[in-house]
């Protein structure tokens, strides 16, 4: 048996692991992306926690309420914004076209992106929880609330990641990606109860927010940080965790279908 015949191709798992490592190294080498993705929600927590330091009633501080929203916003930034802008940039500079011409399974590219989102999301959540506990006496979830926290964050992150990959195709090129995606993300944060009480959002905007995953992710996370008495302040008078799971799950399916239909390996007009 010759040396050539003994040579074997790397396994798909090995290729995915390598690609995930490359994605993480590239992300953490981009100082601007790291600062914006990791530090923006931290800055929001520090500013809002210092300025809006008041009691909502029953001994619940605004910071305790805001923790759910800022974590949801952080997940949105690490997934939807990060994916949409990053992939659009890679499409414009030829990175995607180059990767599509290699023997690498295309699935490895997406696995690498998902791992990147997962690692960055965990980092954001840990940092925000640490700051909330150390500086604002935020009460952490307890018991089975941690299980709710994990599945809400995981489903929300998955839905937003898939949407980010799909939305990346809306930008004409990498230069316009940030201008296309960032306003959408900010509007969703304002109408989804991230920056203030969701009950203070006008009814018609609550209806619009309910069409998108961020509102449901924030609502699910509020259920683990707030006492059950505050569920009465929600539009339906309860946390609606079953509906939270259903809507986020549906958005995962919709996002996957949109990715399949819209994803491109090169910019429009590049052939």
From TrEMBL:
Membrane-spanning parts: 34-52, 64-89, 110-136, 148-171, 183-205, 244-263
Subcellular location, principal: membrane
Entry superkingdom: Bacteria
InterPro entries per record: ABC2_TM (IPR013525), ABC2_TM_bact-type (IPR047817), ABC_2_transport (IPR000412), Nod_factor_ABC_transporter (IPR051784)
Domain ABC transmembrane type-2: 32-266
GO molecular function, one term: ABC-type transporter activity
Keyword tags: Antibiotic resistance, Cell membrane, Membrane, Transmembrane, Transmembrane helix, Transport
Keyword Transmembrane helix: yes
The keyword Cell membrane is assigned to this record: yes
Membrane topology according to the record: Multi-pass membrane protein
Localization terms from the record: Cell membrane; Membrane
GO cellular component entries: ATP-binding cassette (ABC) transporter complex
GO terms (BP aspect): response to antibiotic
Family: Belongs to the ABC-2 integral membrane protein family.
PANTHER family from the UniProt entry: NODULATION PROTEIN J (PTHR43229:SF2)
Protein name: Transport permease protein
Taxonomic lineage from the root: Bacteria, Bacillati, Actinomycetota, Actinomycetes, Geodermatophilales
């Amino acid at each position: 048996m010759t040396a050539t015949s003994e040579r074997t191709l790397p396994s798909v798992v090995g290729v995915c692991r390598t690609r995930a490592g490359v994605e993480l190294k590239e992300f953490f080498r981009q100082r601007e992306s790291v600062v914006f993705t990791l530090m923006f929600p931290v800055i929001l927590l520090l500013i809002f926690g210092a300025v809006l330091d008041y009691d909502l009633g029953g001994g619940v501080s605004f910071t305790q309420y805001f923790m759910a929203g800022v974590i949801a916003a952080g997940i949105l930034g690490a997934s939807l914004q990060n994916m949409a802008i990053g992939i659009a940039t890679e499409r414009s500079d030829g990175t995607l076209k180059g990767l599509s011409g290699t023997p690498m399974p295309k699935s490895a590219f997406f696995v690498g992106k998902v791992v990147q989102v997962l690692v960055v999301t965990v980092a954001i959540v840990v940092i925000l929880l640490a700051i909330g506990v150390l500086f604002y006496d935020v009460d952490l979830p307890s018991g089975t609330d941690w299980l709710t926290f994990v599945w809400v964050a995981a489903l929300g992150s998955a839905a937003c990641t898939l949407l980010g990959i799909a939305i990346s195709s809306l930008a004409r090129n990498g230069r316009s990606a940030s201008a296309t995606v960032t306003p959408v993300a900010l509007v969703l944060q304002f109408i989804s109860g991230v920056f203030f009480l969701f009950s203070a959002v006008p009814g018609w905007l609550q209806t619009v927010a309910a069409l998108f995953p961020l509102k449901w992710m924030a609502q699910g996370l509020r259920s683990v940080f707030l006492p059950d008495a505050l569920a009465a302040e929600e539009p339906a008078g309860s946390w609606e965790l079953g509906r939270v799971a259903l809507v986020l799950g549906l958005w995962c399916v919709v996002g996957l279908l949109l990715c399949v239909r819209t994803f491109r390996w090169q910019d429009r007009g590049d052939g």
